[in-house]
């Protein structure tokens, strides 16, 4: 009997033992392709036939490009599982996968603490408006030629969390320790137990009443540019915005305008609309703290994510089902 194959797209950096242990269950293969064109051709030529599960990383998009309709359409018919190492799986067209009978998983939970930590770091940094003086110091100008802008305390401010999944709920807990009042909006209202004191409000209400708005929702067709010119106009003057989700949830050009006009006071970003390109208006604006997509970039979290993703592959091989199938495929 031929053994099932698992294709590795990207690298295993930490969980080598768990990865190697999969070889008891399946043949582990790497693609030779270095470009999307080569990868598509390998698929078309039948070079990857027999692959049952694909383990892919966020960075492997540099080789294959997005798992869009075109790519999913040429995958070998043997492929039944795509295991994505990351919480956000916007690089994958899940509907195209569903149509082909392919199940997709991500790594929720594993990312929550590290991402919410960066979230809190950005909230504090943007509220305190540290960016100008930190830059001045590096330029040998101590606090700059003028006194730096005075910051604000988080205590007593209203934090609006848009998207109360694992990261949003983790952030709630951390922000509560800074005595912030927490409101949230989510596709579905949470049970009292899950909301843990956060107050449910409509999307518009959240925009109107929040001093700080944190974006913690996934990127998909419905959420692309969820925050644009009209939404900025509803926000309080002087609002602080933080995004650790996906850049394209905000219309970046509209954000730059809202910052330039002073309507948005300061911003903390870990994600960008067109990574690794960052809008020049964001780079030029001293009231923006920029982190180059490092929400999960810790030894502990990277290891936990790999272990989680390998567990998905293992579960697929052993039981024919994934451990954490994406919500769109749960229905
Ligand atoms: O961006 C990080 C992730 O999606 O896990």
Automatic annotation (TrEMBL):
Any single GO CC term annotated in Swiss-Prot or TrEMBL for this entry: cytosol
GO molecular function, one term: NAD binding
Domain D-isomer specific 2-hydroxyacid dehydrogenase NAD-binding, chain residue ranges per copy: 121-295
Domain of life: Eukaryota
InterPro entries the UniProt entry points to: D-isomer_2-hydroxyacid_DH, D-isomer_2_OHA_DH_cat_dom, D-isomer_DH_CS, D-isomer_DH_CS1, D-isomer_DH_NAD-bd, NAD(P)-bd_dom_sf
CDD domains: Mand_dh_like
This protein's UniProt keywords: NAD, Oxidoreductase
Record-annotated membrane-spanning stretches: none
Family: Belongs to the D-isomer specific 2-hydroxyacid dehydrogenase family.
Species annotation: Melanomma pulvis-pyrius CBS 109.77
Name the record gives this protein: Glyoxylate reductase
Domain D-isomer specific 2-hydroxyacid dehydrogenase catalytic: 57-326
PANTHER family referenced in this protein's UniProt entry, alphabetically: 2-HYDROXYACID DEHYDROGENASE-RELATED, HYPOTHETICAL D-ISOMER SPECIFIC 2-HYDROXYACID DEHYDROGENASE (EUROFUNG)
